[in-house]
Amino acid sequence: MQSQESGVHYSRWDSSSRDEISMTAMSSTEEASCSPRLSQKLCSGKLGIAMKVLGGVALFWIIFILGYVTGYYVHKCK
User: Residue 71: beta bridge partners?
Assistant: First the structure.
């Protein structure tokens, strides 16, 4: 069984009227090491530029097709 890595810790100071609440959420080491490497590889360099260009072109065509279909039905002769 794994230990619980996230939680809320509450402590009240006796000498002061301030309360301290700290929240910690830690992910597993596997997730923490994989995500930066993956984002570094996909978002920078030549591959990153290619991904951004392909994403922009795909977004353009999706918006174009939605606009075309919407315009067709809006301006359709009865």
Answer: none
